[in-house]
Design brief:
With 85 residues, the protein is mainly α. The protein contains three helices and no strands. It has one domain. 60% of the residues lie in helices and 0% in strands. The longest helix is centred in the first third of the chain and has 21 residues.
Length: 85
């Protein structure tokens, strides 16, 4: 079985082009990025970690959310806070 890198809110993609762009970009990057992100970096491992369907679904949901209006507001807030520091 191949793991799908799709989030919980696929129905939102049709009404939000930016969210769809995040979804598509993650779908391309996730197969070789998610395992690297979830690896145990404390042992300086260069190897990717295994991940579950649930791990993939949660990660895809968060990435897609970044393209939503609320997610974009979150990103702007973080960047503006960083600029003021």
């Amino acid at each position: 079985m191949s793991i799908k890198h799709e989030g919980f809110g696929l129905h939102l993609l049709a009404s939000n082009p930016l969210e769809e762009s995040y979804f598509k970009a993650w779908a391309e990057q996730a197969p070789h990025t998610l395992g690297w992100l979830l690896r145990d970096s404390s042992d300086d491992s260069r190897y990717q970690s295994d991940y579950s369907e649930r791990d993939a679904k949660v990660a895809a949901t968060v990435i897609q959310w970044l393209g939503s209006p609320v997610g974009q507001s979150f990103v702007r807030e973080v960047l503006e806070t960083k600029e003021r520091q």
